[in-house]
Amino acid sequence: SGELVAVKRVALHDINGDSLASIKMEIDLLKKLNHANIVQYIDTIQTDTHLHIILEIMESSLSAMCKKFGNFSESLTAIYMTQVLEGLKYLHDQGVLHRDVKGANILTTKNGVLKLADFGVAIKLSDNLEGEDMDVVGTPYWMAPEIIEMKGTTSACDIWSVGCTIIELLTGTDGA
């Protein structure tokens, strides 16, 4: 079709069964998501040696843009975070927690539309499970205190990470 796409290529010989199951869960989750602020899944092609996850092409990450151009203004950060929050609202309405919101996992199109990406540690919750997931996953400087303290993951943890991302963009640093 001539359409440009991004291909996430995973070598099957390098991963164990648990990792492959996790990748397939990520694919199953992406297949069900359809929102302007979520990176769009297109297809998966599996060969004997590799798994190719085909996604819409994106221009850059907020993290990379911050490193290249310096910290963002408050007004630009507000515009960007509004888009991120729209994507998160959709995810949370679907019962999905991203669990790794940060500048590196927020991608932009050529037209400036932001999209949440990298659903490798995202989980789909049943209505009665929120707060019961005790896994410590994500990126340390963006993790909510309740995750670090193993008190459970809720949608509020993603919102905490948005706050950390705002600091990342306004200061031009990643917390490290």
Automatic annotation (TrEMBL):
Gene3D superfamilies on file: Transferase(Phosphotransferase) domain 1 (1.10.510.10)
Annotated GO MF terms: ATP binding; MAP kinase kinase kinase activity
Keyword list, A-Z: ATP-binding, Kinase, Nucleotide-binding, Transferase
GO CC annotations on file: cytoplasm
Domain Protein kinase: 1-176
Keyword Lipid metabolism: no
InterPro entries per UniProt: Kinase-like_dom_sf, MAP_kinase_kinase_kinase, Prot_kinase_dom, Ser/Thr_kinase_AS
This protein's name: Kinase-like domain-containing protein
